[in-house]
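Q: What structure does this chain adopt?
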Amino acid sequence: MSRLSYDGVLAVAEPTDRHPPGIESALGKLAHYGLAGRGTSPELLHRLMPRPAACALLRGGAGASTGFDRLPKRPPSVILKILQTDRDRTVAHGRTTASRLERKRRLIPFQMWKKQIAIGAAVALWIPAVYYGARILLIYSTTPGRPAEPLREWPASSVVERNSQHYTLLLFAHPQCGCTRATLGELALLMAHSDGQLDATVFFYLPADEAGSWARTDLWQTASAIPGVRTLEDRDGGMAQRFGAFTSGQTLLYSPGGRLLFHGGITAFRGHSGDNAGRSAITALVRGEIPPGSPSPVMTKVFGCSLRGI
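A:
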């Protein structure tokens, strides 16, 4: 049930458990017009009565019955038309609400499918992108640089003095090649396991038009900190060119007699630290553990940046 209160201008519906006094009797008298059982309500009564009479009737005060007596004597056909209009509006509102609910009910599955399709499309695009990126990275890390074309015998004159009692190792590096960091880590392990039989020199490439500070990067500092290792500038790549080195990380090992025993890299992949054929070969050569009949010199692939852009 509902109750109408009147503030002098607008009638407002308020929930209540019963009609105000006078409404029930007024509704009963509508049977006079043959309208009983046609959905008659206090709201409809408020529309049919003059406003002052409706106020008095709805408030349940004095003059409620007389207010109904002043109900306009409209023909039943007119009242029925008002009733029908009110009912049509109610039905139309119900249909509109039902239509909205139905449309919403139909849209919810569609929106769910739309979200799932969007997620599926994103995943379908993401997987090939990840695969492509991983493949490019794998190709980059496993593609070796240009192999060396080294001197088979130690040159008669060189800036590096060779000790006839020790093995001599030369390593050529680019000071701004991140891949060389792993090579220096492997060099530190080699020196630690050489039992003092290995003399090592690292040549850092330095362009002809650059100051010496260009080559003194953190890689220079790392190499200088390895016991038994010397670091030298290789201005314009002169020493690398003389010894046939083209790639950062290229390592050469000469015997105490000046014969080339090894050339190649001492990492398994570009920028990868860990067990590798180059380090194992040099360790075995220095310890005299190379089996008779092994190829000489031993060669491995070298992974790193170009030293001189060639």
